[in-house]
Amino acid sequence: MTAADSLAAGRTALGIELGSTRIKACLVDADDPSSVLATGAHEWENRLADGLWTYDLADVWAGLQASYADLVRDAESRHGVRPTTFGAIGVSAMMHGYLAFDGHGELLVPFRTWRNTSTGVASAELTELFGLNIPLRWSIAHLHQAVLDGEPHVPDVRFVTTLAGYVHWRLTGEKVLGVGDASGMFPIDSATRDYDAFLLATYDGLAAGRIPALSTLLPRVLTAGSPGGALTAEGAGLLDPTGSLAAGIPFCPPEGDAGTGMVATNAVAPRTGNVSAGTSIFAMVVLERPLESVHHELDLVTTPCGDAVAMVHCNNGASELGAWAGLFGRFAAALSGRPRAALSEGSAAAAGTAVDTDAVFDVLLREALDGDADAGGLLAYNQLAGEPIVGLDEGRPLVVRTPDSAFTLGNFARAQVYGVFATLALGMRVLDAEGVELDRMFAHGGLFRTAGVAQRFLAAALDAPVAVGDSASEGGAWGIAVLAAYARAASGASLAAYLDDRVFSGAAIDIADPDPSDVAGFAAYLDRYRAGLAVEAAAARTLATGR
């Protein structure tokens, strides 16, 4: 079948992922999920309101509709067919956070995202109670902090979910969650692929009399390949207000961005891992055996099939690098003499020619290749928000140098890229000390669109080979589309086998081995970075937010 035939017949799988800065849609051929037929996107941004990072739910639906409409236009432009149905749909989003609803389905408090670090007391109490690391951003930490604080909405809570779970619920009516996303709400028992029953009972004993039994508040857990419900007429109208989209389309279980990143990089089998770089940055390593100790730097989550994964999650990823790219882009535009009124944030022009953000990133990243291996003594702290791995409740982005540092553009750019990977590297060193071994580490996200730069520096940070596939820039939207195609296929094959045989068998993979000079240079940078964290902490204490 041609692409147009597949579109007209609905032999497709649609994936939608709500990321930190973009809502992306990706349409693939259901019989060949490596074939991307159309894409769509919409940019959005979180905001700090009353001291908490949030997104307005109205913006969720406006963004979903815009991204979907963009995909439909792209499909029609490419193939001459305007799709009205699909073989399967999947929804993915940022993991963790807190969306609490009452018995009537009304939101009780504004959405609290993974980025919030206001749950320290709850996180510490639950970690001690469970004997497992419960990070600040996990949904159970948010719920328990609200219980501890006696927030007025707590007695009315009847349903708690993630962003992907919320969107899926509104589109299908089903209160379910993929096991990977669920593992960022509450600990999962890998033997049952469900919430840990003993820990549920333990928590109920702790919170008795203050909230209903926790199992009644959480979404039902599903593994990859399970049916997740079907698009309702109301859901079709929410996604496509034009009324063209047909109801009844089957859904796969909704997943978190960590799980879709694993799928998008074919890293769901033991001894594989991946790094996803965006507003946050995190590494996922599929474990062969349980870890020996509890580490605050490591989360225990799961693959979309429920296998145990060690996760190193850093709240701060490439946003600060993006801010500097915007500044340099604005400088290029000003240098070209373009009128200020003709310029918008994030756009640039050079020599009278428009330059998009990707081009600015490309220049900066290639300049970084000319920097010294240790970034010339420069340091870049990318903490816009708190960073639990290094003990920061709040962040203040900084560039620090000594008078004898080699202050060049190449070193500045390299320091910024190293800064994206620095906290992640600290967490990965803990995993290495546990004796965890990897056969391959894949990377994906927009940072890797410029070939051979961020990939090379990540290899230096991890001192391990890093692979990037030709689907890396599509990221989680493609990953959830693949999960939708997998559920539709109902082949009985394991997800790992499906990915190997049906998705990645002909994929182009580029592998960067660590360069010894880069490894030594990054190690020197990381030593300074660790020592300079006291400066970052002092900045957070002494510099208030707001103008």
TrEMBL record:
Residues 274-487 form the Carbohydrate kinase FGGY C-terminal domain. GO terms for molecular function: kinase activity. Keywords: Carbohydrate metabolism, Kinase, Transferase, Xylose metabolism. It comes from the Bacteria. The keyword tRNA processing does not apply. CDD domains: ASKHA_NBD_FGGY_BaXK-like (cd07809). The keyword Ribonucleoprotein does not apply. Residues 13-238 form the Carbohydrate kinase FGGY N-terminal domain. PANTHER family: SUGAR KINASE, XYLULOSE KINASE. Belongs to the FGGY kinase family. This is FGGY-family carbohydrate kinase. It comes from Microbacterium rhizosphaerae.
